[in-house]
Specification:
56% of the residues are buried. The chain starts with 9 loop residues before the first helix and ends in an 8-residue tail after the last helix. It is built from 16 helices and no strands. The chain has 444 residues and is mainly alpha-helical. The protein is globular, with a radius of gyration of 21 Å.
């Protein structure tokens, strides 16, 4: 259901809008965790390490999809908030056309360069072939993944956070079932994990696009909308390019970190791969609130209601703090048991590595939640320079400090120590940009 976020109690509206998105994030991460559990349990530690080693590379491609999602959703949200439905339709069709072209180009690029990419991140020889196989199949289905995420971004920008939830639940459940069939029953190993994602994502993409077309056609306009607009593409690109660069920079930085992790051997890789899945579960919860804050901000900026944005931010941060408590308790107290879901009891070194990672980074979720949610406000308003600076600062610090601390400690522990520093400093910078107030200008 399309929903106007510019009316009603800001706190209640933001929370009710966020909840389906939060549940979506939970299902998505449960799927990712189940994916790794099935790979680790039924295909072995090396299979889990192979999927984990290629993960940062796949995220570079995903970064483009996420950045494009952000670009279109911010513009569409602000247009929707100003009730300019003709241009909303133009923005949607322009985004879909541009996404098809861009994702097809990246698919060809990824397939041609997969061997070089997997080699470049110091992937150990014993998991190289499986890592490349997983990456190749993943990239072959990238068009589906790209369009699916863009379609969900459009739904969200129109105030509809429930439709993406339904698609995600169906896609995640289907993916897990296919994982079990391909990996546990047919013993296809890493290829089974990749093909399960390919098939589930492809079906979800087609259904999401069909639903989106039906939904957009219901918007009443006085005249026919333009199917493709270069000026509209420029507006979307103005938000999308910094977002893509930001997301890509994060992915490139994670590749440097993954390469450093890979230098400590397959046990550390497996432990990190499992722990980072749990960590990502928490971070995606905060990111979901940040995405909700973006849409809420964009619609209200479009309607000229900046006072509602500040009230929404306070509610979002409080909601974020309520999410931190269970994650912190589970990861510190039951971290070993959680990692045991991914790894067998014999993988002692890998489990110890993962436990240490969780205990070092999870106490700093307070800092990163404030940063991500406030980032959502900056992004939704179109204040991309401030948004990009705070994000780049976080990552630059984490990558540089990871190498410095790893050298000092001569262990992977130094890598884990770099996360809290980057999060805390970036949170301070993000809040500085918020209180400075430049975000109130908007872009539409």
């Amino acid at each position: 259901m399309i929903k106007d976020l510019t009316v009603g109690n800001p706190s209640k509206i933001l929370i009710s809008f966020s909840l389906p998105m939060f549940v979506s994030a939970v299902f998505q991460q449960l799927y990712n965790i189940a994916d790794s559990i099935i790979a680790g349990r039924f295909a072995g530690e090396d299979a889990l390490a192979a999927v984990g080693a290629s993960y940062p590379v796949t995220m570079i491609f995903m970064a483009v999809a996420m950045g494009s999602n952000i670009g279109c959703s911010v513009v569409i949200s602000q247009l929707f908030g100003s009730k300019d439905y003709d241009r909303v339709k133009t923005a949607v069709s322009t985004t879909i056309i541009a996404s098809i072209v861009l994702s097809a180009f990246l698919t060809v690029l990824g397939l041609l360069g997969s061997s070089f990419i997997i080699s470049a991140i110091n992937t150990p020889e014993n998991i190289f072939a499986d890592s490349k196989l997983y990456f190749d199949i993943y990239i072959a289905g990238f068009v589906f993944l790209f369009l699916y995420n863009v379609a969900n971004g459009v739904f969200t920008s129109l105030g509809d956070s429930k439709t993406p939830l339904f698609f995600l639940i169906a896609s995640s459940v289907g993916n897990i079932i296919l994982d079990i069939i391909f990996v546990a029953v047919f013993k296809l190993g890493v290829a089974g994990v990749a093909w399960a994602t390919f098939i589930a994502q492809g079906i979800a993409c087609v259904l999401a696009l069909i639903s989106l077309v039906i939904r957009i056609n219901k918007l009443k306009t006085e005249k026919a909308s333009v199917f493709f607009s270069l000026p509209m593409l420029y507006k979307i690109t103005f938000i999308a390019i910094p977002s893509i660069l930001q997301q890509s920079f994060i992915s490139v930085g994670n590749i440097f970190i993954q390469g450093l992790v890979n230098s400590f051997g397959s046990s550390v890789i497996a432990g990190y791969s499992a722990a980072v899945k749990l960590n990502t579960f928490a971070l995606m919860s905060f990111t979901t609130l940040g995405n909700a804050m973006s849409t809420f901000t964009a619609q209200n900026i479009g309607a000229g209601k900046t006072d509602r944005v500040s009230k929404g931010l306070k509610s979002g941060i409080i909601f974020g703090f309520s999410i931190i408590v269970p994650f912190l308790f589970i990861f510190i107290v039951f971290g070993r048991q959680m990692l045991g879901l991914f790894l067998s009891a014999e993988s002692v070194d890998a489990i110890n590595c993962g436990v240490l990672f969780l205990r070092i980074v999870s106490p700093f979720y307070i800092a990163v939640s404030v940063k991500i949610i406030t980032d959502g406000l900056l992004r939704g308003s179109g204040a991309m320079l401030a948004f990009t600076v705070s994000t780049f600062l976080d990552l630059i610090l984490r990558v540089i400090l990871a190498y410095i601390f790893a050298d000092i400690t001569n262990s992977a522990t130094g890598i884990w120590l770099s996360w809290p520093f980057g999060w805390t400093i970036a949170a301070v910078v993000t809040l500085f940009f918020y209180f400075k107030g430049g975000w109130k200008k908007g872009i539409v």
